[in-house]
Amino acid sequence: MEPTKLLHAVSHYRQHPSQHCHTPIHATPILAALPFNGPNHGLPPNLEITDSLPYSLFPAFFKTTETLLPSFQNLISKISKQDNLPPLCLVSDIFLGWTVEVANNLNIFHTVLCTSGAYGTAVYNSVWTHMPHIYTEFEHIALPDFPKTTLHRSQLTNEMKLADGTDFASVFLRRHIAYCMRTGGTLCNTLEGLEGIGIEQLRKTTKTSVWAVGPLLPRSLINPNFMEKGTDEHVWREQGLETVVCVERMDQYPPASILYVSFGSQFNISEKQMKDLALGLEASGRPFIWSIRPPLGLPKIAEFSSESTGCFLRHCGWNSVMESLSKGVPIIGWPMGAEQFFNVKLLVEEVGVCIELGRGQEEVVGWEKVERAVRVVMGDEE
Length: 382
Hints:
Layout (H helix, E strand, L loop, with lengths): L2 H13 L42 H8 L3 H15 L5 E5 L5 H7 L3 E6 L3 H13 L9 E4 L2 E7 L5 H5 L5 H14 L3 E4 L3 H15 L2 E4 L6 H4 L9 H7 L4 H8 L7 E5 L8 H14 L3 E4 L8 H6 L3 E6 L3 H10 L3 E3 L6 H12 L2 E3 L10 H11 L5
Parallel strand pairs: 1-2, 2-5, 5-6, 7-8, 7-9, 9-10, 10-11
Antiparallel strand pairs: 3-4
């Protein structure tokens, strides 16, 4: 599919959401708390999500989640007893693969919800499962189960580069990848038309059904008038910081003229990188908005409500990719970690809607390279 047609196809889901929601949902979700004491495991108190967690503490957080298994099994057993039958299905995050043990013990169908893309997940799993990079000194690395896919060593995360098979990341991730191989199926936040190759690769390696259920987007991105309580947008409204002011300011610019820069909450760049990035953005001559870091950044509704947004410069975590494509906006990618490197590889080589600016937190990207990338994506240069 041609990139322009693909962008149109993906953005169609945002513009016509009702055409892709066939079954009304009337049930009210019931939330149940599981006992979790972060300080007992070297984590900050009152920790429930990773948004504010330093990346260095992620291993401790992931390891701690495995201690929830007994409490979770007791909860599901209690629900089964109350309802006089077990739940029809257990859906778990990919990093909570141990829930497949509970499902098997209680004879419940289990599926994994993969919030990342199919291609990125398949490559990520392959690297951690086979670790081909530790058996060669070459810069280009072939994947045993995807012979047509070659990675450059610079496309590996720091954890992958340091892994030897006995380190925490290797042991933990291999264990959870093995859990996910025992699931009944995978729900993937993607589209068949976007990631046909990736979905087939994921089916091949997991040997299970893979269903494309994306794009999974916040309702505020589909309907800018929707304001859900508890979201960044709702907080802004409560504090009197009207999002509409931000959008009106952006709307003063022509369509597709503003570059939006955001690297999310998990990764930082150095002072030198920030300076070169700022100089390159200024040299491009294009107006830009740089969301330094939440909570100082604009809420997503401001990013996507204005037609003046013409390009995103992002780390290319899959959520940000789906948000960008849903708006029909091309991307300048600077992957920092996780499967982001593989997402960029897909977007550059297969989809054609992205230019890669840099790789990893250590690379210093000169301002000249930033300027040229912006000019090319924004249509000022070939």
